[in-house]
Structures are given as C-alpha cells and as structure tokens.
Design a protein that fits this description.
single chain; 64 residues; alpha+beta; Omega-AgatoxinV; two-stranded antiparallel ribbon; 2 strands
C-alpha cells in the first residue's frame, strides 16, 4: 500500500491545478411564472417563489 502525506498531496501538481482552475460557467434556465420552485433565485426576473398561499402549500413562481 502506498502512503502519501497530506503535505505531499498539497505539493503535487494535479491538486494545485484542481484548486486553481477557473470555475466553469453553468447556464441554468430560470423557472417561469407558475413553475414549481423552492427558492426565489430559481425564478425568472420579476418573479418570486411563493411557498404558501394562505394556509395551503403553493411552491410556484409568481409575479411580484
């Protein structure tokens, strides 16, 4: 079994490349009006995620 110390791993070129790579851009489509959501940031601009409608669960993007 090959044992590698933490210091050796930190000094290795492959880990350094992994740590300092630029982040890739991930394009995510927004959820339109009436679409299911859990968080407002997933809704399209101008909409928010309404989790409740009165006393009942909603969980859809709504204008506002």
């Amino acid at each position: 079994m090959i044992m590698t110390s933490i210091a050796e791993r930190l000094a290795s070129n492959s880990l350094q490349q992994h740590m300092f790579e630029s982040q890739s851009t991930v394009v995510q489509e927004c959820v339109p009006n009436g679409g299911m959501c859990l968080f407002t940031y997933t809704c399209c601009d101008g909409y928010y995620c309404r989790l409740t409608d009165g006393w009942s669960a909603d969980g859809h993007c709504r204008p506002g």
